[in-house]
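Fill-in record for BTB domain-containing protein.
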Amino acid sequence: MALKYFEKLSNNYLELLNDEKDFNIAINVGESPNTKKFRAHSAILKCRSLYFCNELTELTNIDKDKNHIITLDLKNVSIQQFEVLIKYIYGGIVLLEEHDASFIFELMLVTYEFLFDELAKQLQDHLIEKEAHWLHLNFNRVYLKSFQNNKLQNLQEWCNNIIIKNHINIFDSEEFFTLQENALASLISRDDLQMEEIKIWNYVIKWGIAKNPGLPSELEDWSYENFIALKTTLQNCLPHIRYFQMSGIDIINNVQPYQQIFEKNLWKDIMKKYMTNEPISSIILPPRSILKPALPTRIADQFSKVINVTEIALCWAVDILPDFMSFIFKTIIPTIIIAIATFLLPTTIVTILIIIVTIAIFLLNRKMQKTNIHIFDIIALILIIIVAIEPFSSK
């Protein structure tokens, strides 16, 4: 049986932060005039932090002051952020409820810089699970920042899902040309990206050209070196474009002008596919999947019974109106004709006419595969019976 006293151990180590006697590291955090000095212990920093272990190893031969104190300057972190980090180093505690989502997001970025991968991963998951609303409101900032660090895989995936599911057109936004290459490659690699392949190609080319401002404005003026520069810029994006899902005319008009950025074998296979339909050796990526728009689930409001007038009108138009029009043409008009006929024709002829109309209505219903009896059908039957009985009752 193991007796564990982690909480007490954590508290004891946190108390060392207030010890002004035994520390041997002084850490100056922030930039003037907003700076603060933190006292720490090299043994704890080296044990708990790979970043500080590397820093202190490089400073082993540095001159110490007369009290044998090593001084570190950290300008890439705020005082508030480092207060959280130093408590994490010493006590293994981070109190997220004391901070808002914006602070936690920036803290997550800093923790990766200080190589606290475990803490950064937990902060990343916390933002996705608990602070999704804030992430939505600050989507552009989150999207651009998340792809500046390849360790933010979960957040990158979350951002791509938001773009796909909410049909966010990042390609026409002001931020498009500021995207990192890995962000663009990650997005166009998605099978569920809802965009025609030729449009994806055109956007990728525009992005690549924007990253090379020295390229001539007219393609006819490009040199071989210009194409190589574009190819180098797009080297991680080009493999994700589905060339074999484009039409032949799109290949000729939009892709062929840039054929020099393709590997020879790939371009040869593209030509085979569209010109000769011969077997090819290149990998053919599958077509992108088309997402079916899903209507949101209706939530019943148990406190409100208000019916929208528009919904009533729509219900009438979709459900009742067709039956009503059928009632007019199949019943009212024939009934009027029969009523007039009772005054102008003999009873026998009127009876035959009623039978013919009834059979016609029955056959029409069968043809329309109408099996349910509607209120209009009942009214029609009553009217026909009344009109049919009237000649006999009057005589």
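KEY FINDING: DSSP finds 17 helices and three strands in the chain.
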